[in-house]
Automatic annotation (TrEMBL):
<feature type="domain" description="Cobalamin-independent methionine synthase MetE C-terminal/archaeal">
    <location>
        <begin position="436"/>
        <end position="757"/>
    </location>
</feature>
<comment type="function">
    <text>Catalyzes the transfer of a methyl group from 5-methyltetrahydrofolate to homocysteine resulting in methionine formation.</text>
</comment>
<feature type="binding site">
    <location>
        <position position="493"/>
    </location>
    <ligand>
        <name>L-homocysteine</name>
    </ligand>
</feature>
<feature type="binding site">
    <location>
        <position position="735"/>
    </location>
    <ligand>
        <name>Zn(2+)</name>
    </ligand>
</feature>
<feature type="binding site">
    <location>
        <position position="614"/>
    </location>
    <ligand>
        <name>5-methyltetrahydropteroyltri-L-glutamate</name>
    </ligand>
</feature>
<feature type="binding site">
    <location>
        <position position="735"/>
    </location>
    <ligand>
        <name>Zn(2+) 1</name>
    </ligand>
</feature>
<dbReference type="GO" id="GO:0032259">
    <property type="term" value="P:methylation"/>
</dbReference>
<feature type="binding site">
    <location>
        <position position="652"/>
    </location>
    <ligand>
        <name>Zn(2+)</name>
    </ligand>
</feature>
<feature type="active site" description="Proton donor">
    <location>
        <position position="703"/>
    </location>
</feature>
<dbReference type="InterPro" id="IPR006276">
    <property type="entry name" value="Cobalamin-indep_Met_synthase"/>
</dbReference>
<feature type="binding site">
    <location>
        <position position="493"/>
    </location>
    <ligand>
        <name>L-methionine</name>
    </ligand>
</feature>
<keyword id="KW-0862">Zinc</keyword>
<feature type="binding site">
    <location>
        <position position="674"/>
    </location>
    <ligand>
        <name>Zn(2+) 1</name>
    </ligand>
</feature>
<keyword id="KW-0479">Metal-binding</keyword>
<feature type="binding site">
    <location>
        <position position="126"/>
    </location>
    <ligand>
        <name>5-methyltetrahydropteroyltri-L-glutamate</name>
    </ligand>
</feature>
<dbReference type="InterPro" id="IPR013215">
    <property type="entry name" value="Cbl-indep_Met_Synth_N"/>
</dbReference>
<keyword id="KW-0486">Methionine biosynthesis</keyword>
Amino acid sequence: MTTIHNLGFPRIGARRELKFALESYWKGASSRDELTALGAQLRQRHWQDQAGLDLVPVGDFSFYDQVLDMSFLLGNLPERVQGFHGDVLDNYFRVARGRSAQGTEDHSACCGGVAAGEMTKWFDTNYHYIVPEFNAATPFKLDAARLLAQLAEAQAQGVKAKPVIIGPVTYLAIGKAKDGSNKLALLERLLPVYAELLDTLAGQGVEWVQIDEPILVTELDADWQHAFNTAYHQLKACRVKLLLATYFGQLQENAYLAANLPVAGLHVDAINDREGVQPLINLLPTHKVLSLGVINGRNIWKTDLNATLDWLEPLAERLGERLWIAPSCSLLHVPVDLASEKKLDPEVKSWLAFALQKLDELRVLGKALRDGRDAVKAELAANAAALAARRASPRVHNPAVQAAVARSAAGLGRRESAYAQRAAKQAALLKLPAYPTTTIGSFPQTAEIRHARSEFKAGRLDYPGYQAAMRAEIARCVREQEALGLDVLVHGEAERNDMVEYFGEQLDGYAFSQFGWVQSYGSRCVKPPILFGDISRPQPMTVEWITYAQSLTAKPVKGMLTGPVTLLNWSFVRDDQPRSASCKQLALAIREEVLDLERAGVHVIQIDEAALREGLPLRKAQWPEYLDWAVESFRITANGVRDETQIHTHMCYSEFNDIIASIAGMDADVITIETSRSDMELLDAFDSFQYPNEIGPGVYDIHSPNIPTQERIVQLMQKAAERIPAARLWINPDCGLKTRQWAEVIPALSEMVAAAKTLRACM
Ligand code: GLN
Ligand code: ZN
């Protein structure tokens, strides 16, 4: 009999209940008791939603982040919050979010002034965790109260509980040694705490514990591989059975190691690594459970149940009781319930599965394996029909798009001339001063803008009324920029709710959910658009707004687009063709927009690729392939223009060392990046590569309300000029200004413009 189980459930709630409860609590509008009661209610509901599974995750619920929970469980709190007066939950939020000394929360005055924990992406997902902090002396001490309370709750509700924790090696690997010490040296001190935890769980009647070690799908050096052996040999004596869970990728060279660790079972991602399963079975000692993740925990498509059974049945035959099945990873990364969607196109909807539907699929697979396919005949037939409809749908397959892709010539991504020639022509046309100033695109999204948009969406404001409201904002934005004395202006993006959604809504091949929220960090969620079909652009998307802005000023206005790689990486994308193919279609569609802007007289066009870096595969060996097609997609989008048209790109991150050659390969005339917090040090990557084109290193952090000073900006630019010739430097903020107030933006930008004037005067 095949065991069916789940690795984790989305905690945010089908209606984002947790988000609203957290934000209300943080504001002081509701009590701690109300918040904890809501938590209990969500856990109870989510366990009910998982009824019928043989094992259900416990401990996957979190008020902020499962990695931070793990740090608390192990007693590993950053030094700066130790000895805090007050409640554990408050201390927890203090680590997560930081706390100001001036705040109104309890103990702000005595224990405030604390920086938030650093956040970073959880493997290749869009989920951000709070980075565990270590130093050579970090002590660990078990604090299992939270986990035990959830376990007791689950057991009281009759849940077949499988506690979920992060394994010791992954926990160390994803943390940061603040003093530069060797994190692995902490393993010895860490393991007894894990052992104590596992024995405590055994004492509570737990049979299986899921211990997540996703770091096994990345390249590990010998020390880290060795750490796995050390760790699991030491934990072997514990009285629970361990299911070692890996996900998000392929074990590859770590397969032998993973198969032979002394644990009772191994979970692998059979979506990302179906080919690895057979060889793994041959390696796996015959007493071990093999859990196969056969339902994609990272996308929103229905599983092909019949095809999955074709593959699973012989394995079930061979493995018998040892076969378990589950989603590929925690369902944290998908929305909760497709049934909530009332506005989604019914045809597209019929192809989708969110978390609850994925669990239904799991139950069907389990039943088919147990009782034969006939026992779930109707479900299998309905699934086959939905998949067949999707495969045949003209909504998915657009011959015109496919013909355009097939026709697209190899030279499509090349500019007419090299940068040096282009730069001369652009200089002659644009006549910009040295150290030209610009911004990244968005200006404050004011309450009036949001109001006009929601009225328009609700049908209470007609298009002419909406257009007039947006034009008024654009006019204001242009006026302010002229008054500030900026050199290359923008229209301010008033009409955009979101840099991906705005384009997705206007492209054919995209659909939008109402409640398809996925946790990004803490109470923050994103609602990725659904790229379901061949992509085409029925009509221009931005030309009207940009040309209106240009009509108001003699200064150049920069057209503003989101690039193909970012559109792809921030969407749920098709699983019926490679990501590269979807990206190329996006590239061709956005290219048309670029050419339309050029035709309309726009001389500067920015194509944002904020998410290019985050699409990098987990394994470095796979980077070149990704970078090749990602860069080529950008080039197809950007490089159809004449020499005189200046292409900008923007990337808001600060790690370029390992991808600088690809960044240069994009061949944008100007790239603007985030640098202010790194004190211009990240320009070293550009310097040592001898990056040939122009760069705008961000001179102030737009995430902070602080107003930068002219002196500081001059100082930063001087540092920049030590690395990049001044003639190729621009001055701009780190990123867009949409989250700021006008009252912050005006003084900040005037300092910036003043700094440019000072720098020009010293030339
Ligand atoms: N043009 C966008 C803006 O200014 C870029 C945002 C981003 O890169 N995240 O808002
Ligand atoms: Zn940015």
